Queue: 4 jobs
Job 1
Amino acid sequence: MTTVEKLKMILVEDLNLEELTPADIYENAPLFGEGLGLDSLDAVELIVIMQKRFGIEIQNLDEGKAAFQSVHALASYIEGRLKTG
Amino acid sequence: MRPSDGTDARKDRKSWSARSIGSRWQHRFFYALIRLAGRRAAYVMVVFVALYYVLFRPSVRARSLPYLSRRFPGRNGLLRLWDCFRITVEIGRILVDRAALGILGPGQLTVRYGKREELLERVREGRGLILVTAHAGCWQFAMESLRMLETPVSLLLHREEGDVDLHIFEHSGDEAAFRIIDPAGPLGGALEMLQVLKHGEVLCIMGDRAMGSDRSTVGVEFLGARVRVPISPYRLASATGAPVVVIFPYKSGPGNYSLLVEKVIRVPEDLGRAPEAYRPYAEAFIRALEGFVEERPYQFFNFFDMWNQEPTG
C-alpha cells in the first residue's frame, strides 16, 4: 500500500468522513475548503493523527501549510520525514 | 477587537461588527480625561455619553435589544430604555477601567481570584488548559489576571481593521500578558493552538461567538431560544486531552474585578468530528453562562443577535 493510499484510508477512518470512501478522494484536491472540505478543526485532528499514526510532529507553520495542500503533498511530506528520521 | 472561537474567520459571513461604536476622537477624549482627571471623572462622563447614545443613536439600542428582550422579556418603553442605559454605562465603565489600567498602571484596580488553586491544579496536569469564556464582564482583565498562573497564555483573537479600541498593553506600552492567535491565519491557527496545549500552556477561547461553517457549531437553548455556539474548545479538548475550564471575569465594584471559575468540563478523547458529539459540553457552557447573566444581567456584552444566526453552510 502506498503512502497516498494509506493516508486516504486514515482520513476516511480517523476523520469519520462517512460520506466518502478512499477511492473518492482525489489526491491533488485541496484538503481544506473546496476539495475535501476540511476546516481548521479538522486540521487540529489531522495534526494529532499525524503524530499518532506516523509519529510525525509538525512544528513549523510554513511546513504545515505546504504539507496540508493536498493528500499528495501530505503523503510526500510524510515520506520525506520518515526518510530523514 | 474581539476574541473568536477558532474556526474559519475568513469564511464568516458576519452580521456583527467587533469595532467600537465610539470614534477615534471620542476614545482619545476619554484617554485624556483619565490622564488629567482620573478614572472617577471618566466614570461620570460615561453616564452622559451613555445617555446620549441610548436616546439619540437607535443603532445602539438595536444592538442590545436581542439580548435584553430575552433576558428581560415583557419589558418595553421606559424600562427597556433603562436596561439599555444600564448595560451601556456598564460597558463604558469597564472600558474606562481598561484604559485606566493601561494608562495609570495596575494600582488602579484590584482583581480577586476565585478558585485560583483550581486553575493551577488544571495547569499542573500538563496537558494544556483550555479556558472558555464569553463576552461577559471584561475578558481583557481576565487575560491580564492570568499572569498569576505563571504559564504563557494565548488567546484566539481576530482583530478588525481600523478598530480604534486599544488593548491594555497598547496603552501602557508593556509586553502583552497574552499571545494572540489569529483564527484567520494559516490553518485557522490550528497548529499554533496545538503547540500551546502540547507545551502545557493556556489557550483561551470565546464560547459564545460562532464563526465559520455550521459544522463547527451546535444549536443550544440560551435564554429560551436556540443559539449556535462553537464546538471548537471541546473538539480541541477531545483531540488533545486538555481540560476545559469555564471562566467569567466580571466587574464586582468600582475599580474591582473578580474572576469567576465556574466549572471544569472533561471531554472524552477521540469523539470525532460530528458536532452533535460535543453538544453536552456546549450545553454545559451555556448553562454556566445563563447562570452568569441571571446574576449579572448588565455584564453580558455580546452585541449581536445570537438568536437569529443562520447556519453559514
Job 2
Amino acid sequence: MSTVAAAKASGRRTLGCIALSILGACVGLLFLIPLWWTFVNSLRPGGDTFRYLNPLQWETFFTMTPSLDNYAELLRSNLGLAMLNSIFVSAATVVIGLGICSMAAFALAAIPFRGSGAVFVVVVVSFLIPFDAIAIPLADLFRDWNLQNTYAGLILPGLGNGMAIFLLRTFFLAIPKDLVEAGRLDGLGWWGIFRRIYLPLSVPSLIGAGLTLFLFQWQSYVWPLLNGTDEQHILGPIALSNLQGQFNVDYGVMFAGSIVLTVIPLAIIIGFQRYFIQSVTTTGLK
Amino acid sequence: MAVPPVRRRRRASLVAVAAAFLAPALISLIVLRLAPAAVALWESLFRESFLRGGTVFVGFENYADLFGNADFNNALLVTLVFSAIVNPLQIAVSFLLAVLYTRKAAGAKVWRSLVVLPIAVPPAVSAVVWSVIYRPDGLGNSFLDLLGLPAQPFLTSPQQSLASIMVLLSWIGVGYWMLFLIAGINDVPNELYEAASIDGASAWRKLWSVTFPLVRRPLAFVLVADTVSNFLIFAPVQILTKGGPSGSSNLLMYDIYTRAYTLGDLSKAQAEVIILVLLTLAVVALQFRLLRSSDAA
C-alpha cells in the first residue's frame, strides 16, 4: 500500500472516530436531559419549574441558587414516610428472599433427590407467568386472607423469585461436588455444607440475585397500588403518582421525590455494577 | 427393583432434606404465582348470579362476551398495535446504540453510561417526570419551539397519546436492552472483523454480515423479554392518560384494572387475565423455538 493511500485511510478513520464521538455524545446527553432537568428543578422552588422554559435558556438546565428546601419538605411530608416504607419493604424482600431462594437453589443444585427435575419445572413455569398479570386475582386472595394494607402483604409476593433461584442454581452447579463429599467426611450436615461451603463461595451470585430481588420490589407499581394504599403502608411510587394527580402540585417536592426514588436504586446498581452486568448477561445468554 | 434397605432409607432422607430446603420457596411460588393463575382460570368460568345469589357456571361465556365487547376489542387492538411498534423500535435503537458504543470513539464509556442511567428510574417515576415534560407549557414543547416546530398536545391527543407513552418507556428501556446486546457484541471474536476488513467489506456490510448474525441469540432473548414486559405496561397509562383520550392508550393491563375495579366485573376481568397470560406464554414459547433454531444454525 502506498503511503498516500495509507495516510488517506487513517485520515478517514480519524474523521470517523470524531463523528462517532460526537454522535455518541449527543445521544448520551439526550438521554440525560429529562433526569438532569428533574434534578435541577428539585433544587429550586416549585413555582419556578415553568419559569425558564419559554424560550429555552441556560437557566432551564442550571440554577445559581440551589437549595435543599424541597428535600427537607419531602422529609416532613407523607411522601417521606412512603420512601421509608419502600426502603423497609425492599430491604426485607432482599434479606428474606435471598435466604429462601438460595436454599431452594442449593437443593436443586447439590442434593441428588428424586423429583428434582419436576421441582425445577415448577420453578421455571412460575417465572414464565408474569407477576403483574396475576396481581389482580392475587389481590383478591389477599383480601380474603386479611393481608391487605400490611407490610407482610407487600413483602410476600417478592420473596419467591424464580429468576433469582435460576441464577443461583446456575452458579451453584459450577461448585465441584468433591467439596460436598469433603464436607460430609468432615461431619458436616446438609445445612452445614450450605452455610459453610456454598454460601461463602457464592457471594457474587448472591449479590446478583439480591439485585434482582431488590429491583423487582423497588420498581413495582401494580402490586402496591392494589394491596397497600392506606397512609401507613403506602409505597414511594404510589405516593408520588398520587401527588401528580392533585390539583395543587408542589413541583419542587415532586421532583425531589422522583430524584430520591431514582438515586437509591442507581447508587445500588453503580455500587454493584460488576455483579449487575454479570446477572444481566447470565439471564440473557445462558 | 430391589433396593437395599439402607440405600432406600438414605434416598428417602435425601427427599426429606431437599423438601426442607425447598419448602419456603416452593410454597411461595405455588401460592403466590401458580394459585392466582389457577383461581383466575377457575373464576373466569363462573358468573355472579343475582337471581340465585352466589355464582353459576357459565363455561366460556365470559370469554365470548369479551370478544363481543367493543371496549375489550379496542384494548386488544391498541395493545397489539403498541407491541408491533414499540418492540421493533426499542430493539432497533438498542442495537444501533450498542454498535455505536462498542466502536472506538472518545468517551464512549461515559456516553454509554448516560444512556444506561435511566434504567434506574422506576416506571411510575418516569411517568410522573414526563407528565411535566408533556404539559402544554412543558419542556417538550420548549424543545419543539427551539427547532421551529409548532406546539403539540401530546397526551391529550388521541393520535399522540400512545406514541408519547412509547417515548417515556423507551427512555428507561433502551439502555437496559442495550446492555444485553453490548455483551453479545463483545463476545464476537475480533478476528472475524479483521477477516472481513481484509476482504474489503464496508462498515455496513460488516454490521449486517458479521455482527448481526452473531448476536442473534441475545437479540432473540431481548426481543422476547421486551415483548413480554411491554404487554404488561400499566403505570404510565394509569398515571398519565387513564387509557384515553377515547380509548387510544387503553392497554390490556389497564383495561383489566378498570374492568375489575371501576366496572366491578371480576369474572370477566379474570377471563381477561387468562387471555393476557396466554398471550405472554405464546411469546415465550416462540422464544424457545427461536433460540433452538439459532442453536441448530
Job 3
Amino acid sequence: MDPADGTQTGCREQDSAQQDAEASAGAAAPPAFCNKCGAPWDPDWITCPRCEAQQARKHAVQAAGVIRPIRSAIALYCVILSICVCAALIIRLGTDTERVAPIIIGADVVMTIVVALWCLRPDSRLWLTGLRHVGPARYYGISAVVGCVTFAVARLAVWLLVEYLHIPKLDATAPFVEAGLPVYVMILVICVQPAVIEEIAFRGITLGALQSAMNVREAVFVSTCMFAILHVSFLSIPHLVFMGLIAAVIRIKSGSLYPCMLMHFTHNGLVVTTELLGF
Amino acid sequence: MAEKICPYCQANNEADASFCAACGMALPRMEGTTPRVVAEGSIAATAAGQDVQGRQLKKKLKNACTALFAVAILQSLATLLVLFVLRSRYYPDGWDTASEEVQGAVQSVILTMAGIAVAFAALGFWARKSPLPATIIGLVLYLTAMIADAVMEPETIAQGLLVKAIIIAVLAKGISAAVQYRKLKAEAANTAMV
C-alpha cells in the first residue's frame, strides 16, 4: 500500500472512528490512529513516535491541567536535590573518608524509595507510559552503542577540562574502594540505581509531565537541563547534556524507558570498569 | 444548552455555532451583557478581554525576563568579587606564582560562577521568545545554585534572603503566566480560525 494513501485512509478512518467514539462516550476517546501521519496509536501514548505529533488523552490529560504537571516535575526535582544536598552536607561535616560510601548508598536508597512512591501517584501513572512498553528490539542495540559513545564523549570532555583548565577530577569509585566495598556494590550503586531511578525520574515522570505543557523539543531540552543541573558538577555538564538529549530522543522514538536505562547502565558501567582498571 | 438567535434572520442556532445555519452570516460571540471577572487560571471569553488579559500576562512575563537578567548581572558581579578575593588571598604575587592545585580550584570556582551568569543571560534572551521553558530552567538553576551555595558556605544562607525570595516568587509567577499565555494564544488562534 502506498504510504500516502495509507496515511490518508488512516486519517479518514481515524476521523470517523474518533467522531463515533466521542459521540457514544460523551467524552473525548483515545484515537486509534495518529491524526497527523496515520500510524497506529497506542492509547497510552502522548506523542507519536513516528511524527512526534502530540495527541493528549483528553479525558485524562485535560483533567490534570497544565500547571500541575509542571509543579510535579519541579517538586520531584527539588526532592531529589534535597536528598543529594543532605548527603553532601553530611559528608562535608567532616565524616571519615570510609563513611562516604555508606552515606552515598543511604542517599541512593532514600532516592529510590522516593521515586518509587512518586510513581504511585495517579498523575505519574499518566506519564510513565514508557514502563508499560518494551519498545522495538533495535533500540536496545542502538542504546548499547550510544552508551559507549556518550562514555567516549564524557572521557574526552573531562580530559580536556582537567588537562587545560587543571580542574580537579573526581573518581566515582574512590569512596567505595576506600571503604573496602565489593565490586557488585559499586555496580548496584553507580550503574544500576542511577540507570533505573534517574531514567524513571527524568525521562519518565519529568519528560512525560512537561510534554503536557509544551512541545516535544522544549520538553526534551528542559528535562535534559534539569538532569544535567541536578548533578551539580561543572566538569560533567557537557557530557550530561549530551547524554540527556540522546536518552530523551531514544525515549520518544522507542516509546519505552528500558532502552534509556540500558544506555545509562552502559555509560556508567564503562566509567566504573575503566576506573577500577586504572585507565 | 441555550441557543443563539441570528440577528439577521432570527433563526435558532446551537450555542457554540459561529455561523448561522439558515443564512450563513457570522453570529456574534456574546457571552453575556454584564462584565465577568476572569478567575485565576481561566481565559477571558471575549476578544477585548483576551487582549487585556494578554497584556497583563505579558507584564508578568516581562518581570520574569527581568528577574533572569537581574540574576545574570548579580552573578556576574559576584564572580568578579570572588575573583578579586581569591586573587588577593591565594595568589597576590600573580597567577604564575600559584600552584597547579590552587589554579585548578580557582578556575573551577570562577568558571562555574561565570557559567551560571552566562546561562541566566541566555535564559533571559530565550524567555523573550519562549518564556515557559526558559523560566522553568531558570527557576531550577537558581534553586540549585542557591542550595549548593548554602551547602558550601552555610554562613551565606541568610545573606540577601529577601532578594532570593523575590527572585524565586517572580520566576514561579512567570511560569504560571507563561502557561496561561500559551492557553490564551491557543484560544485566540481557535477564535481567529473560526
Job 4
Amino acid sequence: MSNFEPTIACFLCNWCTYAAADHAGSNRKTYHSGIRIIRTPCSGRVEPDMVMKAFREGADGVLVCGCHPGDCHYVEGNYKTERRMRLLGRMLEQFGIEPERFRLEWVSAAEADRFIELVNEMTEAVRKVGPMELTSEAVLASEKGGAK
Amino acid sequence: MGPKTGVYICECSGNISEKVNVAELLKRFAEKGDNVVLGSHALLCSEAGKAFLDEEIKKHGIERLVVGACSPRQHEQTFRDVMENAGLNPSLVQLANIRELCAWSTEDGQEATVKATALVNAALARVAFHVPLEKKEIDVNPDVLVVGAGVAGMTAALSLAQKGRKVYLVESTPWIGGAVVKYEDVFPNLECAPCMLEPIMDQILHNDQIQLLTNSAVEEVKGFFGNFDIKINKKARYVEPQNCFGCEACYEACPVSVPNAYNYELSQRKAIYTSAAGLLPNVPAIDTANCVRFKGESCAACQESCGFGAVNYDEKDELIECTVGGIVLATGFELFDCSKLPQYGYKDNYNVVSTIELERIISSNGPTGGEVIIGGKKPASAALIHCVGSRNSETCNYCSGICCLSSLKLSHLLRKNVEGISISHFHSDLCLPGKNEWEFYNKIVLEGTQFNRVGSIENLKVEKGKDGLMITDGENTHGPFDMVALSPAVVPCKDSKTLSELFSVDLDAHGFLSEAHNRIGPSATNTKGVFLAGCVQGPKDIQGSVVQSLAAAGGILSALVPGEKLELEVATAMIDGEKCAGCRICNSLCPYKAISYSAEEKVSIINEVLCHGCGTCVAACPAGVITHKQFTKQQLLAEMMGAL
C-alpha cells in the first residue's frame, strides 16, 4: 500500500485556484506528481457527471476548487458549485466511494501554500484508503448517471 | 485520419528541459502516426520561437496545435496570435502547462517527465474537439443616458458631452443640482456649495450635446449594451421655459399655500413654485396635486399674472424614445428617518432637528433666509448627536462616512451664525478620513466645541427638561440645550428597487445598487453598459461621487467609440434551440441576466452580448443542450481522460 501513488483529478477555476497552482509553481514549491489539473472557467462549469467519469477513468480522487464564497469572478458561480457538489458528495458515499476521495475547496489566487497543503493532505488521505476500485454496484449506478 | 496536429515542446531556456526529459516525452508521441508532427524549441515565446512555429505550420500543413510550455494565463494569447498570423483560427491551439504545473512543482525528474507526458496527452486529446470560433462584432450607439442631475450625474454628463457624445440627462424633479445645492457650505474647505456648482450647472443648461429632461422618469429599458432602447416620460411642467423669465409674479398670485418639502416643511410654498431661490433652470413648475385648477376649480391666477404668457395649462406629458449605448445611474440617496428611533425625541420636540434640516435652516435660501431660529428663538446652546441609525444591525449596518464631517461643518456654521453659542457633540467614534479632514476637526476643537465620547449612541436619550433639552447617557445627564441636531445615516434612494428592476442591476444587502466588484469594479455593474455614480451605489462625499462619475464616463468612452464596432466575447455559451425543452432552469441561474425565454419559440436564448462565459448554465442544463464554446463537455472530458 505504501508504494501506491494516487492520481487525483483537480478541476480548478481559472481565476482563483488555477492561479494559486501557477503561483505554487512559480514559487518552486513542489507537491505530489499525481495531481492532474484541468482548467475550467468557473467551478460552476464543472458538471457532477464529470466527477463521476473521472472516477470511472481511473482517478483515485477528485478535487473541485473555486474562489471563496463572495469572491467569484462570475458573481455567484461558486454558490451553484457548492449546492451541486455537496449533493454529489452525499451520493458518491452511497455508491461506496469514500469521502476522502472527493473534496470541494475554496482556494484564492493568493493561497498557493494552502493549495499545496491541500493537495498533499488529500494525496495522503487517498493513499490511506487505497487505489480506486469501483464495485460493480457503483459502476452500474454511475453508468446510469452518465447516460443522462 | 484526423486533422494534422503539431505537438511542440518549449524548453523555456532550461526552465522546463532541466526537469522534464523532452526527448523522452516526444518519443511517447512518436507512435501517434503521421498526422501528429512533433518538435521542440529552446524558447517558443521568443521572436525566433514564433517564427519557427510559423515555418513548421506552413511546412507540414499543420491544422491544430498543442504547445507544451508555460501557463495559459501567461502565453495562451501569444500562441493564439501565432495561429492567426499563420492563417489558422486562433481557437485551434491548446497549451499544456508543463512549467508551473509540472517542471517547477515536481521534485523528481522522472516523475516530472511522466506528468508532462500526461499533460501534453491531455492537450492533444482536447484540441481534437476544438472548433474554429469566429469573432463577432455588433454596431453600437455611442449616445448615453444619465439618470439623475445631481453633482454625480452632471459630472458624468459633462465629461461624456465633452467628447461629443449625445447625452440624455433625466432628472425626476423640475430642477437640477441634487442634494449638494441644498447645502450652504461644504466640508472641509467651507466652500459655498451653490457657487461651486454654478459653473457646472451653467454648462449643463447650455451644452448642445446634452438634452436635459427635467420632471422626467425612465419608464422602459429594453435591449443591451451598445443598443438600449429607452422610453422616458417627460411630465408636463405647465410653464414654458422659452417664455418664462423667472420674475416670480405668479407665486404671489397663487392662492394655495402648502408645506415646502424641499425645506423639510419648515416653510410654505405655492402650488406654482420653485423649491428654493436660485435653483436652475429658473422656471417654476405647477404642482398638480395641490393646484386648485387641477382639482377642478376655475382658478387661472398664475396665468393671468404672467406678463409673458408662459403658463400653459394645456401642456401634456411627452413620451420620449431614444437609443443609447451606455447608461449612468446617479440618483443619489436619502437620509435615515430619525423618527424610527424614538429615544431622540425627533418630531416630538420642535427643537430636535436632523442635520439636513439644520443645513436648510442655515442656508441663505432656506426657510428663515439663513438666520438660525429654532423653536422661535436663536439657540444659545446646541448638541449634535452622531451616528443616528448608523452602525446598527437593526437599522443601517454600516458607517456612512460623511456624517461626522458634515456635523463638524454644521458646528462651525452655527458658531458663525449665532454669536456665543455653546456646542457639544455626542459620538462613540469619529470617522475623519482624508488629507484635510483631521486638520478640519482640530480647527473645530479650537473653536471651543465640546466632544463627548459615549459608549453607545443608541442608549442616549433626549428629553424635555424645565430649562431645555436634556441628554442622558446612562448615569450622566448633559444639558440643558436649546436645540439638538441628529446626524442620520445615508440610506438608499427611494427609487433604488424600481431602478434595480428597470435596469437589471442587483441590490446589495443594504438596498443600494450593487457595483460589479467593490474594489476593482466600483462603477460598473453586472449588467454590461450600466454604470453607477455617486450615492446610488453607497454613501460617499462629493469628491467620491465626482471620481466615480468620471470613472463611469471613462468606462463608456473607452468601450463605445463612434464608428467602431463592439467585439463580443468569443467564449460564450449557446443553446441548441432544436433540443431545448424550454424548462427555463438556466434562466434564473445566469448572474448576468443573459438568458431569456422566448415564448414564441418555446426555448431559452442566450444573449451573446451579455454572456460572460462562466458556464454555470452549461453545467445545469438537464438536457445537456447548452454548450460553452471554449469549454465544451467533450473538450473537458477528453482533457481529463488524456491526463489520467
